[in-house]
Amino acid sequence: MKGSGGLTLSLILCGRNDNYAGDFKYRVSTSINYFCRHAAELGVLKKMEVVFVDWNSDVPVAEELRLSPESAETTRFIMVPPNVASKYNSPGRGYHNSLPLNVGLRRARGEFIAFAPADVIFSKPSVRNIFELMEGGVTAPFDPRKAFLCVGRKFVPWQFWERKPGLEEWDRYIKLHSHHLVYENHLFHGICGGYGALLASRELFFETQGVREDVSGWGATDIDLGIRMNLKYPTVPLAGFGIDAYDMQTKPESNAYRHLPEHEIPRGTPGEIKANAEDWGLKGYDFEELKSHFSGDFDYPSEYGMVKSITLDNGSTIALSRGVLIELLTNIYKTNEQNFHKLFLSWYSKHFLPKNYLDYGISSEDVLFTFSAAQVNSMEIYGIDPFKEPRRNFEAQTMVAALLAKINHTGFVHLVSGDPETAFDRLRKAFMGPMSFELVVFRPELFGPSFQKQLIQAAKCLEVNGALLLVSTDPGLYTLACETLEREFAERLLVFGSHNAGVMINIL
User: Fold this and answer.
1) What global pTM score does this model have?
2) What is the CATH number of domain 306-505?
C-alpha cells in the first residue's frame, strides 16, 4: 500500500497544549526541529512529513511552537477539537492515549510510518540509517516492508533539557554523552515494550488497524500491537543498524504518568491481527489541518535557560539578585559552618543545574561527597590532578572512574594528569569548543604557594551565574586564596566562610 505524494516516511507525534510533564512546547519543537534539520542536511526532507495530532487543545499547538522554516513546511497539524475529543475521553480526563495515534496513522501519507513520544530526539546517523533501511540502501536479513521495526531508546536526564538547550547544545550532548546514557531495559523481548519509536510499512499498520482504541492510558498498548504483529511478521530491534532514539527523562515531580491504564488490555479474539472496527482512527471525520506560521528565531539561545529566579523551600519564588544570593548563602553558612561546601554544592546544583564541572584535585579523599553533593550525574566532568606516581596514577584514576559509576554518572569525563602547573593550558588546548565552566571546585593545596595563577585562570573561565567553590584544609592557603579573589574579582559576588570554604559566583 503506497503512501500519497511520493513520501517515504511519516513521523507521527501526538499531544495536547496543556504543558504535559513540563515544558511540553519546548520538548516538542526541539524534537521536530532536530529531526527536520538532519533530514534537510541529508537531502531527504522532501521525502518525509511530520504529522502532529493535536487532541483536545483549546489553543492549537501549531500556534505556539517555535518551528524552524523547514519544520514548519514539513509538519501537518491535525486538529481533533474538544467537541469531538470529549466524546471519547474518559470522564475527568482531557486526553486519550490511543486514538490520537490512530488518527495520525489513518491520515499519514508516507510509505513507512513511525510513531514516537512527542519529545523523542533522533541523532543524524539514526535519521540517515532509517532512510537507508527503508529505501534498500543497507543489506538486511528481512524485508523492511514486512517487519515491525523497533527503535530502542536512551534517556536524557531532565537536568540537561530543563535548561532548554538549543540544537547545537543537543548535538554536543548526544555526541559526547550517548555512550553512557541509560538504555531502556527491554523486559518484553520480542513484543515491542519500552521502545522509543515503532516503525512499519503503511500496509502493516493498516492491516493491524493500529493500536487498540478500547483502552486509554499509559502503557501496554505497544505490547498488544507487538503481539498482534507477531502473528504474521517479525519484530526487529534496530540497534544493530545504528538506529536509536533519545527520550527526554521526565522530572520526578512531573505529571508524566497521570494517564495510567484504566483497565486490563482486552484479550480480543485469539489469533486476530486486527484490534478495532473498520472505522478505526476516526475515519468518518474530516479534521481541520493547520500549518505553523512561526516567524523569528526558532532556536533557543543559551540565555533562554539561564536561571533568573530561585524557588525557596516554602514554594515561593524570588528574583535572582546579588542581595538575594548573599542572604541565601549566608544563611546556608550559618546553618552548618563545617559542611558549608557540601551544603553549597547541593543548593547550587539544585537551583542552577550546571552543565559542566571542573575539579582541581579530583582524587582527594572527599571527592565522593563532592560528587554526591553536586549531583554531577549528567554533567561533563573535568578533573585536574597530578596522580604523581605511575601506580598512583592508575589506581587513583580508576578510583575516580569507579566512584562515577557508583553514583550512576552518565556524562562525558576528561581527567588531566601530569604537572598541575600546565594542566589547565593542556585542558584548554584539548577542550571541545570554547572553554568555560559553570561549576569549579578549587583546592589550593594541589599547587602549594604558587596556586594564585591557577585560581585566577579558573575564575576567568566561569560562565555567567557560574560558581567557584574554594575548599582548603590549610588556613594560610585559604586566607591567601580569599584575598586573591577579593583583589582580582571584587565586582563579583564573594561569600567567604571563616572555616575552610568560600564561594565566588559570576554575577555582575
Assistant:
1) 0.90
2) 3.40.50.150
